[in-house]
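ok so dumb question maybe but i'm new to this and my supervisor (M.) told me to 'just get the structure for P-type Cu(2+) transporter' and walked off. so i did the thing. is this what she meant?? sequence i used:
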Amino acid sequence: MITLPIRGMTCASCSARVERALKKLPGVQSAVVNLATETATIDAPALDRSVLVEAIVRAGYEVPDPPATHPPPDPSASDPAMPASGLDRLRAHLPQDPEARDVLWATLLTLPLLLPMLAGEDGHHLVAPFWQAVLASVVLFVFGGRFFKAGWKAVQARSANMDVLVALGTGAAWALSMAVWLSTDEDTPPALYFESAAAVITLVRLGKWLEARAKRRTLAALDALQALRPAQACVLRHGQEKILPIDKLRLGDEVMVRPGERLPVDGVVLEGHSHIDESLITGESLPVARGPGEHVTGGSVNGEGVLKVRATALGAESQIARIVRLVEEAQGIKAPIQQQVDKVAAVFVPVVLVLAVVTWVGWLTLSTEGLAQATIHAVSVLVIACPCALGLATPATLMVASGLAARRGILVRDASTLERLREVRLVAFDKTGTLTQGHPDITGVHAAPGIDPQAVLATAAALQQGSEHPLARAVLAQAREQGLILPHATGVCAEPGYGLRGDVHAAGPDSPRYTFHLGSSRWMRELGVDLQTLEAAAQAHAVQGHSVSWLVLVPPGSHAATSDTDTPPPRPTPMLLGCLAFGDRPRVTAAAAVATLQAQSVRCVLISGDHPAAAEHLGRAVGISEVHADARPEGKAALIAQLKASTSGAVAMVGDGINDAPALAGADVGLAMAHADGGTDVAMHTAGITLLRGDPWSVVEALALAKATGDKIRQNLFWAFAYNIVGIPLAMLGQLSPMVAGAAMALSSVCVVSSALWLGRWKPPVMLSSAPD
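this is what came out, is it supposed to look like this??
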């Protein structure tokens, strides 16, 4: 894909014209031109950039060169050491934006032309016709010259756009005024319309400047996101710390990140513990704990600890770069409704030209007001009918929506996905990692009669110190949470398929030691352990889909051989101390998200590859009654197809892993849950929407934002059409002067863009309840 900036587009007809010019080139597979972002996205692998640029220029538009890395100094800038001249002081008070300067000068030159109109009939003598002609000519051909130039190129290309309308309208008013002035006696005050021509140009330029300001605001979030990464990093090479520019880093580099610094790269923590503020990337307001083995994202802010991070992604492959790329692509791809609007805009301008001719002929033949008034009414029709608002209604809204979604940790791949999401009537959730946390936690610690549960947990944690097994991490995390002091363990070894065994010292390395086994029910049965006292508790957990590990004390003289011998020696039976249950807890927001969706008449379904007991238990916990368990990846895709066939609206699938990819792709809308420990790459490439926070509540926010966006697009289109439906007949009936028509046209564009920006005030739904722990 090649993305080119385009300058000079003023309406939907312009973007359609550039698209047609690009699509005519051999080798162009697709071309999408976005009026709001002023960019063209072209899929033409075999074509050079210069060929595409040439086609755009031939169509009458400009492609600016990429900005220089080190722009040359401005020779007109005054030397700060020299006293400022009067011109320098004037320049310092003028707007620095070229568009704003043009609007200011055009306004200053137009104001004197409005004095006769403001002063009434006797005001014609306030500004001589000669000076009216001079001022209007400067405004028209200097500050409005772009419209005549672009309009002429459009005519040469057998096309019509806003530039043609403005050029014809203002040019006709100026030419009529010149003809009347030159043909009127000096003693007779001529009826001139120079002020209308100048005012229309000024108002159109003002509207374009306000549109540009609004569009810059919509892109400010992306600029801020791109600026998150620091310019340099502290890198460890050959045992020494070096400060290097970010573009000099290599994959695998070890980067030191001190408290308060932004992470310069995506990577994995090698050493250190800290809390990371990822709010600007994921939308999560609270800092998250990160330690060895966990992933961190470049641009997030390190908290209180020093971290050593191995770089796993740089440059264009970093998380921030991919987020920006996805948001830009979402802004550049047109929604289906915008494609329909473009078709309307393509025929709109020719129809307006016909209506202007009809108006001119009608007033000339049916009225006694003469050529001048007929021309003025036709000019009003040309000016009021500019389709700018029509072309901006959808892309301006989508720009705001996609940026707003990104700030909430919701990445939308394209505009059509956002439009389909609005129609979702059924959401299918994966279980593990989507509605659950995706990693095991301790769900219960049960002790045999006379045994302290904390002693059971501390002994189990002592045996698993240093282990990276998920169950071991859960035990150690629970022990840390309870502030337990762990005894010293030695000789710990794994029994594959069973568990582990080891010696635990009562008070220190030199104190008496006791041998413990921690493992499965199968192992306990082979050891002859009596589990009856805790069997009921274990069964209760099994019904919920939890796994159970048993802790037993092995008396001296017994052994833990798991293989049978011909004549095993008698051995004392190990004594049951307790058991630990492990389960994948529901996410805190899962139940609230499901309840909110169901309250909005959105049907919720659970599709899981887990066994029925675990899936049904989770369904009850989060409020989902329709549960499909034991579903393999291809089975999930088949279920999605069945649900689509039986649902009147769109079907969305929410998943988090590679096994969910077929279902994510098969749904009308796929929402991929990203995780800090990976999976984001697969999510971004499979689903239409990526939820960076890994939070089910993001599904509620995404649906609510899609609905608000759709409502805003339709509201903007209504006002865009309403301006023309009301304004064109009024202009044809002679009820609008060209100047009023120009003001109304400019106002319509500003209203549409301002309305789109108002979407930025959207607030996500408030969570009224949450899932139980």
